[in-house]
Structure formats: structure tokens, C-alpha cells
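Hey, resending since the last one bounced:
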Amino acid sequence: MADDALRTMLLDWLDDHYLFGDARTVVRSDELSWLDHGVLDSLGFVKMILFIEDRLGLRFERRLLTRENFDGLGKIVRYVTAHPGYRGAP
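The C-alpha cells again:
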């Protein structure tokens, strides 16, 4: 997998803020659409993006905050790891 530490960081965040320990059960596939399956709503996505930016010291262009880049674990991991400022998840 592209970055297990990033994947774990995101699933832990989901557990702590939205899915309360069920993230690994609910997010059963990297390609599961979080919007279509109710994993996060639009406010949840904003909070998650702010968390990623803060935790990893990144800034995302607002015009690139799309479903194609952020609607699912695999999409997020691929987008974040391709970011020029990404140095790895803590």
C-alpha cells in the first residue's frame, strides 16, 4: 500500500471524530465513496481536510478539493502522497 501511516492516521481520525471505533468496518475498501456511503458529509470533509493540512503541514489548492481527489481512502492517500510538500505521515 502507498502509505500505511497515512492510511492509519486517516482511519484513526475517522474513529475519533465520526465513526467511533468502526472506521475499519465501515471503510471496507480503499475505493468506497465516502459521500455516497455516508462516511462523511460536507462539513466532515472540511474538518478532515483541515486536519490533514494541519497535521502534515500541507496546503491544498481549494479548486482541487474535489470528489476525484478526496472521496475515498484510496483517493485521499494517492492525492496527499503526490503533494509536493508531503514528507510522510507521523
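The chain has a mean pLDDT of 95.

Sorry for the duplicate.
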